[in-house]
Amino acid sequence: MEAKMDNRAIGVFDSGLGGLTATHELMKLMPDENIIYLGDSHNMPYGERSHEEIVRLSRWDLSFLLERKVKAVFVACGTATSNALDVLKKESPVPVIGVVEPAVKEAVTATRNKKIGLLATRACVQSGAFQRALANASGELEITVQACPKFASMVEEGIIDKNDERVRQAVSEYLPLLKSAGVDTVILGCTHYPMLSDVISEYMGSGVTLISSSAAAARSVKCMLVARGMTAEKGNGGISYNTTGDEEAFAASARLMLKNDISSQLTRIEPLIL
Ligand code: DGL
């Protein structure tokens, strides 16, 4: 039987640039897919917003992508996933995948001592979504949670060098709790954080496994599209970027993150003003 194919794009959104870490993983796994990326940089950081605001912004992000006739929506943002995934799933005519469940599944498989740490934004931590998913996955886990309000904005500004004093200061503020709890697995619950994995890993030590919610979710998106016969034909791959923020700043930070100049594929769009 001939496999079904679907050449429509995959829509991906984040509050800003963090979702690029997930997009990058997805492009490696599925080079033939066409991707439409939306970074709502104007309204970033979502992690410092209320639950109601995050739901409203996430619905707007979803409708932007649906208007472009995407075949699936990848919520490449821990904060949006943890606060709005249920609403988006209910309202979307196409499949919607977030980062919480995939990251939790990989963390539970990775841990040996059953002590898992979670690093995420304030609003993500407050939603309790990761904590609930971990507790549902296994009753034996000891979970240590740390909100890291400075991390995402630092990444957004391109402050990612592990020798940068601001990076080192933030790491020494956020990581001692996880270290003293003896976790052997750390979930990077915000998609901006994989850009800081070197310095986080160096601090936590080589025996600690970092779980990138971006990479875990990208693998999950691939599994879903393959299982549903929704992958694209060979040679279809491409990406376009949209930002509600400053185009030059977005392109400059993206260049640092992706080692690639994306300015010719980038469009500025009007934000939702709250
Ligand atoms: N990248 C987003 C996440 O995964 C958060 C950044 C923000 O606070 O806007 O949670």
List bound small molecules. D-glutamic acid
With helices defined by DSSP (H or I, 4 residues minimum), what is the helix count? 12
What is the number of domains? 2
CATH topology (level 3) name of the largest domain: Rossmann fold
Listing every helix as H and every strand as E from the N terminus to the C terminus, the arrangement reads: EHEHEHEHEHHEHHHEHEHEHE
In the CATH classification, which architecture of the largest domain applies? 3-Layer(aba) Sandwich
What share of the residues lie within helices?
40-55%
CATH class placement of the largest domain = Alpha Beta
What sort of overall outline do the alpha carbons produce when their principal axes are compared? globular
Which spans of ≥5 residues are poorly predicted at pLDDT below 50?
A: none
The SS-based structural class is: alpha/beta
- Strand adjacency order, main sheet: 4-3-1-2-9-10
Q: Total strand count, please? A: 10
- Tell me the distance between the termini: 50 Å
Gyration radius from CA atoms, angstroms? 18 Å
Oligomer: single chain
User: Overall pLDDT, averaged?
Assistant: 96
For the sheet with most strands, the description reads: 6 strands, parallel
Strand content: 15-25%
